[in-house]
Amino acid sequence: MNIYVGNLSYKVEENELRQIFEEYGEVASVNIITDKYSGRSKGFGFVEMNDEEQAKKAIEELNQKEVDGRQIVVNVARPRRTDDNRQ
């Protein structure tokens, strides 16, 4: 399951985010989105967990949890919108 993680502190790194989610099960991948010019975090990312039950538990328990001084937003990632879908 692909999980969206938003409102991240710009200082949070992928290895730290992985450790947080590994408390709930095996993490397949972690990707914090960065600005392609500055390389700075955009404050959100994605965590992939193969076990759906573990992923749901992580979402339930981590949503609104404080990480590095900010309340993170955690939910199921939705497919990326294309220009055709925007209204």
Number of helices: 2
Low-pLDDT parts are none
Sheet bearing the most strands, described?
4 strands, antiparallel
CATH architecture tag of the domain at 13-35 and 54-78: 2-Layer Sandwich
Placed side by side, the strands forming the largest sheet appear as 2-3-1-6
Radius of gyration: 13 Å
Your description of this structure?
The protein has 87 residues and is α+β, with helices and mostly antiparallel strands. It has a domain at 13-35 and 54-78: 2-Layer Sandwich (Alpha-Beta Plaits), CATH 3.30.70. The chain has two helices and six strands. It has helices at 14-22, 52-62, and strands spanning 2-6, 29-34, 41-48, 66-67, 70-71, 73-76. It has a four-stranded antiparallel sheet, with helices on one face. The longest helix is centred in the middle third of the chain and has 11 residues, at 52-62. It is globular.
Brief account:
The chain has 87 residues and is α+β, with helices and mostly antiparallel strands. It contains 2 helices and 6 strands. It has a domain at 13-35 and 54-78: Alpha-Beta Plaits, CATH 3.30.70.330.
Question: What distinguishing features does this structure have?
Answer:
single chain, 87 residues, alpha+beta, Alpha-Beta Plaits, four-stranded antiparallel β-sheet, two-stranded antiparallel ribbon, 2 helices, 6 strands, 23% helix, globular
Give the SSE map:
Elements: E1 2-6, H1 14-22, E2 29-34, E3 41-48, H2 52-62, E4 66-67, E5 70-71, E6 73-76
Antiparallel strand pairs: 1-3, 1-6, 2-3, 4-5
